[in-house]
Amino acid sequence: MKLVMEGQPLLVHLAIWTCVAVFLISFVGVLLSIYLILTKTNALATKPDEMRLSYWERAARKSNRAGSIFAQNEFKYLRYLSASAVIGSLGSFGTLLLIIGIFGERS
Questions:
Q1: pTM of the entire structure?
Q2: Which residue range(s) make up the domain with 19?
Q3: How many folded domains does the chain comprise?
Q4: CA 48 – CA 44 distance, rounded (Å)
Q5: Is 106 helix (H, G, I), strand (E, B) or coil?
Q6: Under a CB-based contact definition with an 8 Å cutoff, are residues 1 and 107 in contact?
Q7: Can you give 43-84 as a three-state secondary structure string?
Q8: CA dist 107 to 4, 56, 96, Å?
Q9: Is residue 4 part of a domain?
Q10: Inside any domain, residue 5
Q11: pLDDT tens across 72-105, in order?
């Protein structure tokens, strides 16, 4: 199935390009939220007192610091940012697939 844009109403064109734009913006938001989570929680940093620990223990502590986003109130805005970006990406991509499914031509 493919979407042939010729002969489609203007509203279909606008809906498709709006979904594409929202998906791209939301996808960038997902990447930004991942970056902010990793930097704000210091999940990528090795603290000086952890240098003597084994690799796996350091990795576990970094993972615990990244997981603190779900428990601490100071990271509430990051939870909202990541959730809204993921929901926006999935919603716009699903809507785009729905539009292509409805208005697409079967080859």
A1: 0.77
A2: 10-103
A3: 1
A4: 13
A5: coil
A6: yes
A7: CCCCCHHHCCCCHHHHHHHHHHHHHHHHCCHHHHHHHHHHHH
A8: 10, 53, 19
A9: no
A10: no
A11: 888 888 889 899 999 999 999 999 999 888 887 7
Asked whether residue 17 is assigned to any structural domain, the reply reads: yes
Rounded to the nearest 5 degrees, what angle is found at the Cα of 63, between the Cα atoms of 83 and 72?
Answer: 55
At 62, is the pLDDT very low, low, confident or very high (cuts 50, 70, 90)? confident
DSSP secondary structure code for residue 105 in this structure:
B
- The answer to the question of residue 78 being in a domain is yes
Q: What is the dihedral of CA 8, 9, 14, 20, to 10 degrees?
A: -20
Given a cut of 90, whether residue 40 has pLDDT beyond it is no
Q: What is the DSSP letter of 31?
A: H
Q: Which two tokens stand for residue 62?
A: 């970094």
